[in-house]
Amino acid sequence: MPIYQKLNEExxxxxxxxxxxTNDGITxxxxxxxxxxxxxxxxxxxATKRDRLFEALKVKQNNDNCSNNIFxxxxxxxxxxxxxKNPELFEFRRQGINRVLLFAxxxxxxxxxxxxVDSVKNLDDAQNRADKLTAELQNRKVHNEVLKYCKPxxxxxxxxxxxxxxxxxxxxxxxxxxxxxxxxxxxxxxxxKISNPYIIINSFRTDTEKSEQxxxxxxxxxxxxxxxxxxxxxxxxxxxxxxxxxxxxxxxVSLVHKKLDKAIIIKLK
Length: 269
Prior knowledge:
Blueprint: H1 9-19, H2 28-37, H3 49-64, H4 68-77, H5 87-101, E1 106-108, E2 114-116, H6 123-139, H7 144-147, H8 160-178, H9 184-192, E3 199-200, H10 207-227, H11 243-262, E4 264-265
Antiparallel strand pairs: 1-2, 3-4
Helix pairs in contact: 1-3, 1-5, 2-4, 6-11, 8-9, 8-11, 9-10
């Protein structure tokens, strides 16, 4: 293996966000397993998955003064034999890893091997998309939870991945609010159900208010249904979203977060 230069911390954080994603990333147990297999210490096993992985990889590359062992870890995680029963998940994770590493001039191929490539050529385009998206959304006074997804690494090809991550952010927030661990329609149904809900978006006394709660639940199910399909990751990876569509979709995500800001937590899991 050639000597790989150290990855900057922002890139490494984004990489860990992909590999240890709450919904689509490797589990806590797998993090420990693959770190051990790559001879990398695990200094914070009790931290969140992303923070745990980031700290372990950061310390290792600082000690080594190169990122070789980070790539060794990724090779173990992305060995195609691990995905024989779920090749869609392999491709989903591979594309996510490449969206980050292409900025450093590396690419993971379909054999689970890394190769050196030219640094991503559309960095300026991605930054321009991020700037344009941020400016338009700020003009619309969208929720801050939405603005954090206006990042160049999510906008290399089009606006799809920024919108996807923003939608995933809704689920993450609802899990934090309720203590639930489910995802998609199951999470929404459980959190907002009319009988014994975890969250209510109004005083929940009249039939009209209960109807509003039901409508909000159906709205969320529709949004999730457009983007989130845990068992078929590859289905919409190549869906091109244009700027105007992204503005409208992210404004809708903002509306959801503003509703959640005012929501009342009835119980915790």
